[in-house]
Design a protein that fits this description.
alpha/beta; Rossmann fold; 2 domains; three-stranded antiparallel sheet
């Protein structure tokens, strides 16, 4: 590996540089991962260059204007999750970040409401960056946007927020919903969620379970959750669980077949075929994707599969 690394570092630009990256990239990545060298800056560099140099060949026949826009962006910039200039500009100058002395945690504001952040986000700058990225993800032009003007939670609706994290989605719909079940297993986020929703304790239920297609000590299916909490109808399921969306939807078969779930907002960008598979699983619903594309390959360190660009969120409704 050292010899390959030395070769790539020596060759600075031009055709030979491109050939070297495409020839050795996967081998270097595989060896680094095997050695547990995940955070090596060289791994990141070679991964980005491999993506950058293989894009023109992979997408040479595309007629999709959004893909063409992404290609143009990457030709002039480093590959990123969002291939839009607005994403770079979206790092708003967020100054309204505060430290809660009693809780020893930072908080910012989401749509005028306090939003607490887990303890490991332990500086104002870290919180600003996280909050800024979240604001871009839910901005009007973002491929990661869950809600639209005509795709939203109904007044009095029940919501399943699966993969709640900091809870910004739940905070957005808290005034409309009659009850929100937040499925989250990260202890740090759970602690933050309890502070964020302290004034809404009658509306919020935090479920410390992974949502899957099987019930166990650590996992629960949507069908079982519906039964356990005596829920007859869910207005919306929002789901962002790092690639486990397919198994979670499979665990909702009874609820889907009986028409107990009205709407879904499901992330489809974690794996290259997720969008197609999830759309097929929800074929009884009217479906549409969010605008634009996201690059899933940013995370695919060990398995750089095509396509690189995939749809971000599938919105489905009965």
């Amino acid at each position: 590996m050292k010899n390959i690394k030395k070769i790539i570092i020596k060759i600075k630009d031009g055709y030979l540089y491109k050939r070297t990256y495409t020839k050795y990239a996967k081998k270097v990545i595989k060896m680094m991962i095997k050695q547990g060298d995940w955070n090596n800056s060289f791994l990141e560099d070679i991964r980005f260059m491999y993506i950058k140099y293989t894009i023109p060949e992979i997408y040479k026949n595309t007629t999709d204007p959004e893909i063409r826009k992404c290609m143009e962006y990457v030709a002039n910039n480093k590959p990123e999750v969002f291939c839009y200039d607005d994403a770079r500009k979206s790092y708003y100058d967020i100054q309204d970040v505060h430290y809660d002395e009693a809780a020893k945690m930072y908080f910012g504001y989401w749509e005028g409401k306090k939003l607490y952040f887990k303890r490991s986000l332990n500086s104002p700058e870290m919180v600003r960056n996280y909050l800024s990225n979240s604001k871009w993800e839910q901005s009007l032009e973002s491929p990661h946007r869950y809600l639209t003007e005509d795709f939203n939670v109904e007044n009095g609706g029940v919501v399943f927020d699966i993969g709640g994290a900091e809870g910004n989605f739940s905070l957005t719909v808290i005034d409309k919903a009659s009850k929100i079940y937040i499925f989250e297993c990260d202890e740090e986020w759970i602690e933050a969620l309890k502070l964020t929703f302290a004034d809404y304790s009658d509306k919020i239920e935090i479920v410390k379970k992974y949502v899957s297609d099987k019930d166990s000590e650590r996992t629960i299916t949507i069908d079982t959750a519906m039964k356990n909490y005596n829920v007859n109808s869910v207005d919306m399921v929002k789901m962002d669980i790092e690639g486990a969306e397919i198994s979670a939807i499979k665990g909702a078969k009874q609820s889907i077949d009986s028409g107990m779930i009205m709407k879904w907002a499901v992330c489809t960008y974690h794996n290259p075929k997720d969008a197609e598979i999830i759309s097929n699983l929800l074929s009884s619903y009217k479906r549409e994707y969010s605008k634009g594309y996201m690059m899933h390959a940013i995370w695919q360190l060990h398995n750089l599969k095509y396509p690189y660009w995939v749809k971000g969120v599938l919105r489905a409704r009965l």
